[in-house]
User: Which sequence fits this backbone?
């Protein structure tokens, strides 16, 4: 499979690239800087995305909103819409979005980001990721999309290949902890690219 990976040098993007190549897939990395052997493009630039996506089987959008105190939702939604338009122009239908955990439900109608204990540091990013999910749900019906939320906690760790897959609700273990390593998140994402079991919906992965 030929995969265009937008955001290839981030914590998750690097691991998705490694996992996909490990399984024999061809990965074209894209970053804003064009460093480390990646192609240079802004995800919000539909024409640039289209030119890079041509001839690929799938696109993975793994960009994060800024955490520098600036407005987060606008740039992330622009990246999402640019990517959607680029896929259409290139004739590529398959899209997997690296999403956030904040929009996952902890109770009916209650999102994780709306709980009192959610860290203020990550709130703008979480709300932005939730807006991106809403845009994908509303505007990507003509594409084969999947949005994958991690657990509440995600960081570099071990690749075990053993985790649970859920839907719109936050997954926790017996002790109430919600966690996934970035390596196992990448396993789940490439699994979905290969199996196409969650087209047109959001899923989440956790231990």
Assistant:
């Amino acid at each position: 499979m030929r995969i265009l990976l937008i955001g290839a040098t981030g914590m998750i993007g690097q691991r998705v690239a490694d996992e996909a190549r490990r399984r024999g897939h061809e990965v074209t990395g894209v970053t804003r800087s064009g460093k480390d052997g990646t192609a240079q493009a802004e995800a919000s630039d539909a024409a640039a995305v289209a030119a890079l996506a041509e001839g690929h089987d799938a696109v993975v959008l793994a960009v994060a909103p800024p955490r520098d105190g600036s407005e987060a939702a606008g740039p992330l939604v622009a990246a999402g819409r640019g990517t959607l338009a680029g896929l259409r122009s290139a004739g590529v239908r398959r899209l997997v979005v690296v999403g956030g955990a904040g929009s996952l439900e902890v109770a009916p109608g209650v999102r994780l980001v709306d709980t009192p204990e959610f860290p203020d540091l990550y709130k703008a990013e979480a709300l932005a990721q939730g807006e991106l999910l809403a845009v994908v749900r509303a505007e990507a019906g003509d594409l084969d999309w999947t949005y994958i939320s991690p657990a509440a906690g995600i960081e570099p760790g071990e690749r075990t290949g053993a985790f649970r897959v859920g839907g719109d609700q936050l997954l926790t273990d017996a002790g109430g902890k919600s966690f996934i390593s970035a390596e196992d998140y990448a396993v789940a994402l490439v699994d979905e690219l290969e199996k196409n079991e969650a087209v047109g919906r959001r899923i989440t992965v956790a231990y």
Remarks:
- The mean pLDDT is 96.
- The two ends are 28 Å apart (CA to CA).
